[in-house]
Amino acid sequence: MTLANYIDIETTRDELIRACKQAADLIRTRVDYKYILVLLFLKRLSDEWKREYNEALKYLIEKEGLSREEAEELAKDISFHRFMYPEKYTWEELRKNVNELPVKLSEALKLLAEKNPELQGVVDRLDFLEFTRHRDNFDILVQLFELFSGLNLGRTSDSILGDAYEWIVGYFAPQKAKEGEVFTPSEVVELIVKIVAPKPLESVYDPAAGYARMLIRAYDYVKEKYGEEEAKKLFLYGQEVNPTTYAIAKMNAIVHGIKDINLVVGDTLKNPRFKDGESFRRFDVVIANPPWNQDGYGEVELKKAEFYEERFKYGYPPNNSADWAWIQHMLASAKRCVGVVIDNGCLFRGGKEKTIRKAILMDDLLECVILLPEKLFYNTGAPGAILIFNKQKPEERKSKVLFINASNEYEKHPEVRKLNRLGDEHIEKIVNAYREFKDVEGFCRVVSLDEIKENDYNLNVTLYVFPKEEVEEIDVAREWEELKAIEEEIRGVEGKIEEFLAELNYRVS
Q: Where is the N6 adenine-specific DNA methyltransferase N-terminal domain (predicted)?
């Protein structure tokens, strides 16, 4: 097969997911799965650059009348490429000598970062030389490299590449959750994005960005509803404390076709990195699943933080749970609305958390509380909650809060035993309930702030709405007939037993 023919072959979704499954089986728990993501990213960039090069070469020769020698040199110009890629480190060149693979990969990633400022601290984050000091890891690397060599990702769509990244992250989520890594199930991400409903020209901010999955879904939501050109007008911002997670987030956004995303590294609660003059920046929509019950962010620590008086004006949380510190930061950073996935316990715990909760309620910022089903999350079986805050409440919603009890809205997870998930119909039911903002018996209820005050500012959803229990209808006449028939049968059996005993006594005597 010629190179010209090869670049026209598009790897399908099934082929790519199959390769990802083989890669996952290959490394299992022996190797950090992030190395798979980096290799997949590099393969994408290499194949894409090769396709762009050949297309430019053809154009320059056939349309511009350049000689092949002139065209070959000019086709490398950045004007023909999304990223500058070092030609001597294309996948085909790297494959020529697998014994030098760790060194060449490290050199390739370093050069990519140098040539593309937006990839600095991203592709050069993982060290393949350190990784392959163990001989077994070298063998795994070679096998992974050969596995991906069978793919051509030059024309594969961003959505397919994005699905592959999502599959890999989701596959290893149960394992990484045990190590403390936060993973928000994709259907929970879908639910919160549909509720906050970002629009073109709005800014969306995630202060606990993780792999940027909420921001990516916000982009896709606008793309699906308003079109790709309108989606490009959405401004995405995220801050992540872990540099390696930040690197994967940046790659994740790029493979999803989102190059213009503003991601930064840093501790959000202590030092929010997005500034607007002498203050922190505000955004139209703020969404996040911050670490639940994070310790170490009590009053003493938060008073050392930047802009602490503005960001934590409702009070300081206890040292053993930063839930309401995250919520306050998000509220202070929002112009329109906030959507946060949080531990259910922060809805009703007392002490300092109750003081903060009361003050926020009195400012009439809370719009909706959603109790999620149990066993949705990989790192806990406890039900989480979603809080929706609205700084632009319509008149008819003022001094009211909608409580949605979605504890029964789930199906069994098809791949992970003992886990549940939200199905499409469950997501739509919850979103519609939020939009309609009215009572539905056993599912949701609009509650006044006065009633919440009577309950001592407790936001426990089951205080306000409890699912209807399925009551089985009983046909009394039929049940009575069946009971009489059973009694008749019992009398018949008793008669036979008496006859048997009488005959037995006769024989003995």
A: 22-148
pLDDT over 90 (residue 388)? yes
Closest CA to 184 of 164, 205, 206: 206
Q: Do residues 196 and 339 make contact, with C-beta atoms less than 8 angstroms apart?
A: yes
92 CB-near residues (< 8 Å, 6+ apart): 50
Strand 400-405 versus strand 444-448 pairing type: antiparallel
Please give the torsion angle defined by the CA atoms of residues 296, 301, 306 and 310, in that order, rounded to the nearest 10 degrees: 90
pLDDT score at 441: 95
Residue type, 357: R
Domain boundaries, the chain: 3-156, 184-463, 475-509
Mean pLDDT of 199-219: 97
Element (H, E) at 325: helix 323-333
- N residues, the chain: 509
- Indicate the pTM of the whole model: 0.87
DSSP annotation of 401: E
Are both 3-156 and 184-463 of the same fold? Answer: no
Q: How far apart are CA 308 and CA 220, in angstroms?
A: 34
CATH code given to domain 184-463? 3.40.50.150
DSSP state of 120: T
Instruction: Check whether 171 has a pLDDT greater than 90.
Output: no
Host H or E run for residue 284: strand 283-288
Burial class (CB in 10 A: 0-12, 13-18, 19+), 48: buried
What's the pLDDT tens digit per position in 61-74?
A: 999 999 999 999 99
